Amino acid sequence: MTVPGGPWPGHFGLEAAIFRSHPAVMPASYPPARSDVSLHFGQLLAASRGYRDGSGVVLFPEQLSVDVRSTRQAFGVVFLDRLHQLFLTRVLPVMEEHTFTAAERKELGELRRRAFLAHEWGHLQGADLEAAVLTRRRCLVAVISELHADLDALVMLLDNPDDKAAATAKVLVADRIVREAWLRRPHAQVDAIAARQLLVLLVKVGAVTLGGSGRLSLNVAAARGRLDEELARVRELEQACCTAGVEPALQYPRASGWAVVDSACYRELESPIARFLGYAASRSVTAA
User: Fold this and answer.
1) What is the pTM of this model?
2) Hey, where are the domains in the chain?
3) Where are the alpha helices (DSSP H) in 66-186?
4) pLDDT, tens digit, for every residue of 13-65?
5) Which of 71, 173, 210, 225 is most buried (most C-beta within 10 Å)?
6) Rounded to whole angstroms, how far apart are CA atoms 153 and 141?
């Protein structure tokens, strides 16, 4: 198998991982969502090099050796400890010191868990699961689905009275625009394309700026109205994709300034913020 996020892109070989897992449960403060989708968090105990040395955080269901394969499992196992470590090493050093309070920094592991679950909660607000799964195999439709999940999650968190909701929104945004927007081959990676589109939206309304030290500063609440507008647009597109196929998803990035060739999306991000993030990402990959 190939290992997502493995140290040798495109490598195909026999790999193994040993882990503990437990069911993931949505925080009580999140609004009710459909509960027919199974999700598990895992802790990696031992692994061959393809898993041990890479940056991958997910084992997909088709990678698991099981007696009975679940039809309700979007992911096989998500390694939450690796998500947390990636945030500490790739994301936090790029942020202004004041972005997270001392109390929030002590809870970054929990906040990263909540941010992941908020994104999954956003997916559950989307189009009918069975219809969407058939079309999400197409890259451009998957981009719409990912962006929809982020937007729905952020709107929910910004309106949520829970005392951890605002910090969770910051973690979700920071991980997307600092780490996932700069994955390898970003023109072809669904998460990277969606993250770059989110970055463009947030920069335009001043929710992402460069602070006094030259690092990234976030004011996610400043984007509340713009997020609502884009969410309504993307919801409509996702519904259209379930009936009309890939064409609505093709028009969206083109209308937003992307060049689309087959399923690849190209857009040069020329703002000082984007240039800084690209530089920071290249340094973190070199160091790794």
Assistant:
1) 0.86
2) 86-287
3) 80-86, 102-106, 108-124, 129-136, 139-158, 165-174
4) 677 778 888 888 999 999 988 766 678 898 888 888 777 776 667 776 555 55
5) 173
6) 18
